[in-house]
Amino acid sequence: MFKKTIIALSLITFSGATLAAAPVANLKVTGSITPPTCTIKGQNEVDLEYVFDVSPGMFPVSGNLLLDAKTNNIEVVCDASTYLTFSSTDNRASSVLTAGVYNFGLGLFDTDKKVGFYTITMKNATVKQDASSAAQTVGVSNGTSYATSLSVDKTKKMAWATAASTLRAGQIFSADLDVRPTLSSELKTSSGDANLDGYATLAFAFSL
């Protein structure tokens, strides 16, 4: 009985020594993820200017003055396929005549009076898969709503999309941005010159 036990222990010890000497292969996965580079008209920052010339005679007898919209086109070109969104920041937020997520401030006159506000509408959105592809008409999404045109909501991201929660990938993104100001009726009795001083920032974001 004693001898059998010794033999068994010897076998176990030998087996353990064999496993300890087994070769080991280490598998490593490496690489890099390079995000796309996107520009607007070949630049990282551009100014879209909307100029409105207003005279006192344009104001109605009572109430605020709603001006006709003016349009600028924006085109964002990326070097790889991506999804594109933008968020908006109103740099004149304290001067909004009527508060709302769609209303952007137009500055002040007579020291502390509010000029009015303006809205931005995104429409005629298209996406190209690359420079040689034809532009494909898409819709506009803010994450919850989807349509062929939407007012820019300061609290949400706007996107080129095919549904409210389905963004459209591509390399070249284009859209028209309409700006439509509403001016305060108090401008008719202003004691001096008043200027429209709207200033907003659209920050674009893209992903793989």
From TrEMBL:
- Which keywords does this Swiss-Prot/TrEMBL entry list? Signal
Q: Which residues, if any, are the signal sequence?
A: 1-20
Q: What is this protein called?
A: PF06551 family protein
Protein's organism: Providencia alcalifaciens 205/92
